[in-house]
Design goal:
This protein has 15 helices and 20 strands. The protein has 579 residues and is an alpha+beta fold. GO terms for molecular function: oxidoreductase activity.
Length: 579
């Protein structure tokens, strides 16, 4: 659920001419085609007689059109770099792409967002990228989501006081006291966690000017206003969030379970492994006065389209169905890519991979990769994979107050990271009816990074064994949907039923073992940086700092883009957007 902040809940139709065909499916029973490349240029499809990219040289090549890759490419175009994005899929967006079946427009990944319309130094990283591009994402706002936990079913509200009422009703006064104690400690830390604008960061010593020197006065003022106790506690921002919980002596079982749930939805790990800064950032968005959640009016596709509009506005291009077969390395540096078609495209300045660390490694000639680098990648723990259930059904008989988001936890004792335990459900058509045919609902349910790949490894997707396993492992999602949507829902009346497995993730998203991403434990390890041992090869996305989630991957793309231009150009951009 990599969209929690602007984000999984650890994340998206528009008025530009689409290259998307809306023909692929999340279900493995449908075929996904690869052809030799179509380039979007200025909103139109450009082909030449040989079906190849018109240019064979560019400044920067970006592999993959996830939100991190698109953020990087669009900002590079804004910096007047010649940039091309190569995407294997026939849809842009990576894990956040959308697809259409019978008029139902489904998100494939992130579904819970906030901060998309924020602006200024403390804005969501994705919002800062969009601001730099002169783009925006129209959103509907709301302030609650439905929670189905062993204790009760209740409507969880956003804001500093509303959730306290829920806690009092369902967890008791002790939980209220501990939650207030947590807010009192954490919210002041948000000023430190948000002190540096994400767009000011770069991956070289130029950061001393674009971030440290530029914002030194405001940083000093921030820590002065926090007071000595909060300033001292801010040193915990790079430690696991559980350390803050332990220092506050928070022991209420519901509070600890709830925070584990939020941590897991944000980054795929529990509170003992998530970076405190990530949780503090989320708390500042969710539990501040006037806080709200947002959902793009066009679904996750609205975010992807806004980034592509920005990319194309400044002369960048995206080539769909252009499968990168390998990264070409000569004289020990990355010089371009070779497509499945056999075509070679040269990159004069850099190649940026938005693929996972494991999938990027597969694109490199083995002989040029330092053993220490490959060993680190191959020994990095992975989050588990996903199960998906995409449904389209008639709204007749469904209660009118059905909310957009539902979270079902079957058993706290098993842990929120246990398989077949937590189910996330999104019904975005309750807020944006244009995502489904008139009088219908579109629904996406999923197991958030808890499905073991080992159960599926080696299965033939056309076999009866595979179909039976899909039916068995998706039953938990069907039951959760029936619980959340209520008695008016019927499986038999669904007009669209699609089940996605870890093999779906692996195949359509080019995700090694269908993984959610690296399972990096705060305090014991850190997410890799963006440079690699191969000169001129960079990485962005959820395998790099700052990690998993829509805001994080947007920030990673921005860091790489900033690092590939001069400090002067970077500073001019910060001036242009007023941060």
């Amino acid at each position: 659920m990599n969209a929690m902040r602007g984000v999984s809940v650890g994340v998206f139709p528009c008025n530009v001419m689409r290259v998307r065909k809306y023909c692929s499916r999340i279900d493995d029973d449908h075929h996904h085609s690869h052809s030799n490349g179509r380039i979007r240029k200025g909103g139109v499809v450009v082909r030449n007689s040989s079906n190849k990219v018109d240019e064979t040289e560019t400044d920067v090549i970006v592999i993959g059109s996830g939100i991190g890759g698109l953020s990087c490419a669009a900002l590079l175009a804004r910096y007047e770099q010649d940039v091309v994005v190569f995407e294997s899929h026939d849809h842009a967006g990576g894990a956040a792409h959308s697809f259409d079946v019978k008029g139902y427009k489904f998100d494939s990944g992130p579904s819970l967002f906030s901060g998309l319309q924020s602006r200024g130094p403390q804005a969501n990283p994705l919002a800062q990228v969009l601001d730099a591009l002169g783009e925006s994402v129209p959103c509907a706002t709301y302030d609650s989501w439905m929670v189905h936990v062993p204790e009760a079913d209740f409507l969880s509200r956003i804001g500093p006081t509303e959730f306290l009422k829920d806690l009092h009703n369902y967890a008791g006064p002790e939980a209220v006291q501990e939650w207030q104690k947590l807010l009192d400690a954490v919210l002041p830390l948000s000023t430190a966690a948000m002190a540096l604008p994400p767009l000011s960061v770069r991956g070289d010593f130029g950061v001393l000017y674009t971030a440290a020197a530029r914002y030194a006065p405001s940083l000093f003022n921030t820590f002065f206003q926090m007071g000595p106790q909060a300033a001292l506690r801010s040193t915990q921002l790079l430690s696991p969030f559980s350390q803050i919980l332990d220092s506050l002596q928070l022991k209420n079982p519901f509070i600890r379970n709830w925070i584990d749930l939020l941590s897991f939805l944000l980054a795929g790990v529990k509170s003992d492994s998530i970076l405190s800064a990530e949780m503090v950032y989320m708390f500042a968005e969710w539990y501040k006065p006037g806080g709200c959640l947002e959902y793009p009016l066009d679904g996750a596709a609205g975010i992807v389209d806004a980034l592509i509009r920005g990319l194309e506005k400044f002369g960048g291009r995206i080539s769909l169905q252009s499968h990168v077969e390998k990264i070409v390395v000569e004289n020990d540096r990355a010089i371009g890519v070779k497509l499945r078609s056999g075509q070679f495209i040269r990159a004069k300045k850099a190649v940026v991979s938005n693929a996972s660390m494991w999938d990027t490694l597969k694109l490199l000639p083995q002989e040029v990769v330092p053993k220490s680098y490959s060993n680190r990648i191959n020994t990095t723990s992975q989050c588990e994979s996903f199960m998906h259930l995409h449904l389209g059904f008639d709204a007749e008989g469904i209660r009118s107050d059905l909310g957009i988001h539902h979270i079902v936890v079957n058993d706290w004792e098993r842990g929120v990271d246990a398989d077949q335990n937590v189910v996330l459900i999104s019904v975005p058509s309750v807020l944006t009816p244009n995502l489904a045919p008139i009088g219908k609902h579109v629904l996406h349910a999923y197991l958030p990074g808890t499905e073991p790949f080992e159960l599926w490894e080696g299965l033939d997707r056309k076999s009866a064994e595979y179909r039976n396993l899909k039916a068995q492992r998706s039953e938990i999602m069907w039951r959760a949907v029936e619980r959340a949507v209520g008695p008016g829902f019927s499986r038999e009346k669904c007009e669209v039923k699609l089940v996605g497995s870890p093999l779906t993730h692996q195949r359509f998203l080019r995700r090694n073992r269908g993984t959610y991403g690296p399972a990096i434990q705060a305090g014991t390890d850190t997410f890799p940086g963006h440079s690699t041992p191969i000169p001129h090869l960079y990485c962005c996305g959820d395998s790099t700092f700052p990690g998993i989630g829509v805001p994080a991957v947007a920030a990673s793309g921005a860091i790489v883009a900033n690092s590939l231009v001069s400090v002067s150009q970077h500073s001019q951009l910060l001036d242009a957007i007023g941060i």
